[in-house]
């Protein structure tokens, strides 16, 4: 089999890249390790930046996102029992976010891919990348025990943090920057109507908590926990008690309870591998970088990467030269590092660290006070939260 671009991974990065390339008349094959159901049901991120919404719109896959996604013009920061609203829209010059689950984006993109008729191969095992330094790279893998090979011009490594693409770069080429946090998030999805129509990020002496949602019937909630937290130790009652305690407000607001539909623990890590290109391989999304989820940036960065990559490949195949391909890593890393800093900053401001001294506690409080009372402080938070414009 031959194609122009072989894409490893059918997460948001791989699927959107395939779709943007299709719209530019460029052929691709997407190879995914899991089955379709797994891809469509994996609960992960939920906040789409303005630029992500615009990108999905421009790509013609935004119809359901507009119908079912929830527009949000603000978020709330809760500390010392009081909620403080950050007016994202007013503070960012009219930009805002939309709450729409990552798995819904993935469903829309899989539907678009199937409609395009271009190949999307699920349940591929033993995926391996070859010849990245030369002019004729290829992918090999197996489906139902049968060996397959795809020859291509370029490989897009969109296979997430635990994928094989990054590891296919020879030792010593990538420079890795990493920070592992001493906590994780215990996330639940509850069959309960959200009791507020904005997200609440809470800094509480017992740890961080986040109130979010997926629809007008489903609430999404997170609790800071130990990195190796044993889910079995968390009964439903313990989860709700902890949520009510950490999200307690002077005005009596609290999340609605309901049956817990799904639960999981997400480790927290900052990670960047530079450069995001090696020979004919381009890394995109979590394959190249990870942020702690506090700033809601992970999926948005994946979308931004493939937007840049699709434009660069379109220029290449359209006879407009390889300047954009040459600049891919530098272009993406500028945005990546802004999001790395922002996600680290939000994480540091909102979580309890084991070694927090009273001095550090006061600094956290002062920072929260500043961003919720100073327009300049609020603008910094808002501009980053809604996402910086692409400028392409
Ligand atoms: P992924 O979504 O990871 O997609 C990679 C795809 O590649 C997957 O489908 C995988 O099966 C496939 N793959 C992997 N290895 C191979 C292989 N060898 N061969 C073929 N295919 C392969 N971000 C937020 O902003 N908020 C959140 O609440 C949040 N929660 C998260 C919870 C978890 C458990 C995780 C892991 C991440 C979370 N993130 C969150 C981050 C966000 O979901 C990611 O940034 C986003 O999924 C990145 O998209 P991606 O396409 O780059 O990678
Ligand atoms: C959600 C996840 C986040 O990481 C975040 O910052 C806000 C919302 C969510 O899953 O809804």
Defining key terms:
FAD/NAD(P)-binding domain; 392 residues; 6-stranded mixed β-sheet; 11 helices; binds 3,4-dihydroxybenzoic acid; alpha+beta
At the fourth level of CATH, the homologous superfamily of one domain is FAD/NAD(P)-binding domain
Bound molecules: flavin-adenine dinucleotide, 3,4-dihydroxybenzoic acid
**N-end to C-end Cα span:** 34 Å
The CATH class label of one domain is: Alpha Beta
In total, the number of strands is 20
Walk me through what this model shows.
This protein is an alpha+beta fold and 392 residues long. It has a domain at 5-72 and 96-177 and 269-354: FAD/NAD(P)-binding domain (3-Layer(bba) Sandwich). 35% of the residues lie in helices and 27% in strands. The chain has an eight-stranded mixed beta sheet with strand order 6-5-14-15-16-13-17-20. A six-stranded mixed beta sheet has the order 8-2-1-12-19-18. Strand 10 and strand 11 form a beta hairpin. Helix 1 packs parallel to helix 6, helix 1 (12-23) runs parallel beside helix 8 and helix 10 (358-373) crosses helix 11. The two termini are 34 Å apart. The model has no long low-confidence stretch (mean pLDDT 97). The structure holds flavin-adenine dinucleotide (FAD) and 3,4-dihydroxybenzoic acid. Residues 8-14, 31-34, 39, 44-45, 102, 124, 127, 158-160, 163-164, 266, 285-286, 293, 296-299, 302 line the site of flavin-adenine dinucleotide.
